[in-house]
Design brief:
- The complex is a heterodimer.
- By secondary structure, chain A is of the alpha+beta class.
- Chain A has five helices and two strands.
- In chain A, strands 1-2 form a two-stranded antiparallel sheet.
- Chain B has two domains: 5-71; 73-212, no CATH class.
- Chain B has helices at 12-21, 24-45, 47-72, 74-106, 108-111, 113-120, 122-143, 147-173, 182-206.
- Classes of the chains: A alpha+beta, B mainly alpha.
- Chains A and B meet through helix 2, helix 3 and strand 2 of A and helix 2 and helix 3 of B.
Chain lengths: 110, 213
């Protein structure tokens, strides 16, 4: 089902972090957003591996910022969710909602 | 540890390892992000806490970087690995006979028998080690930016083959003398990885733009 894929668990979390951060989404902010909201330490490598995979699928796009001194002269790589990415998030949400509908245990987690 | 400018610096070995495994563009983002968070943590929670955090991030990030490197060019990386493997299979059996041919030609055994014994035993092991190092260089050069994943995989394949062969010989003959050869087999595999690290470090040096720390 090409183009009708659902997002994986961590992909889903990363895309939601990008949507929350808007124009300020780059490695550090994405990692911190996930850490603060989920309460689990995430490696920067895992974030970039997922972002690269999402970019290959066309769900996100990246753009380089200018180099900054606090980063040792290295530039930031900013990420944005594409329309295809938003559609994938919606599809995944609908699938999860439909799967949990009517299950008593799901309500206890709400 | 603080730099001459007074800013806390992340652990050098960790930075070097990240540089070894990262693709050029990926490395710029990952190292920049880690340095930015390291500086914030060092000023908030102290340099030793920040260094421990940096090491933790490095250990978790290295396999991811290796995976990204492979996925971005699977054909190139696989070709470099298979090429290195076939080259070793082709050249490996020639090392011993070549060494004996040279010793024969120089007539070493007539004049310096102890030297002859050394080259006919340890000398062949050293020649094998050098052969593995050269194969590691060639595989790393072919892998173009994915030196570490190519050479580590190659080293792992040869180390696994050596372990299987040793276990088979020991279990079928009951003679454990071959176990003494294991350090040499392990060094051969290690030499391939060292070659990968040398090639990548050289490439980083050649393309150094901004400071890598």
């Amino acid at each position: 089902m090409a183009g009708r894929d659902y997002l994986g668990e961590f992909e889903h979390i990363v895309v939601l972090a990008l949507l929350r951060l808007g124009d300020e989404a780059y490695g550090v902010t994405v990692r911190q957003e996930i850490e603060v909201r989920i309460g689990r330490e995430v490696s920067i490598g895992a974030v970039y591996a997922t972002l690269d995979r999402l970019e290959t699928k066309g769900y996100v796009k990246s753009q380089r910022g200018g180099p900054t001194p606090e980063r040792g002269g290295r530039s930031k790589r900013f990420f944005k969710v594409t329309a295809k990415g938003v559609a994938a998030v919606n599809r995944t949400h609908r699938a999860l909602q439909s799967m949990t509908e009517g299950l008593g245990f799901a309500r206890s987690y709400a | 540890m603080k730099s001459p400018s007074g800013f806390a610096q992340p652990p050098r070995i960790a930075v070097w390892l990240l540089n070894l495994f990262a693709l050029e563009e990926e490395g710029e983002s990952v190292l920049g992000d880690l340095l930015e968070e390291f500086s914030i943590l060092a000023s908030k929670s102290g340099v030793s806490f920040a260094r421990r955090w940096y090491w933790r991030q490095t250990v978790k990030t290295l396999p991811q970087l290796a995976g990204v490197g492979f996925r971005s060019a699977p054909l190139l990386t696989t070709t470099a690995i298979i090429g290195g493997f076939l080259l070793r299979k082709l050249v490996g059996p020639l090392v011993g006979p070549a060494m004996f041919a040279v010793l024969e030609w120089c007539k070493v055994y007539e004049r310096h028998f102890t030297t002859y014994i050394f080259f006919a035993s340890t000398g062949i092991d050293i020649a094998h080690l050098v052969t593995f190092l050269v194969i590691g260089f060639l595989a790393a050069l072919a892998a173009k930016g994915r030196e570490m994943i190519a050479t580590i995989t190659l080293g792992f394949i040869f180390a696994s083959m050596a372990i299987v062969a040793i276990v088979y010989v020991v279990s079928s003959t009951g003679d454990s003398a071959i176990l003494r050869r294991f350090p040499w087999y392990a060094s051969d595999s290690f030499a391939i990885v060292i070659a990968g690290a040398i090639v990548k470090t050289h490439r980083l040096g050649a393309s150094a733009g901004p400071s890598k720390a």
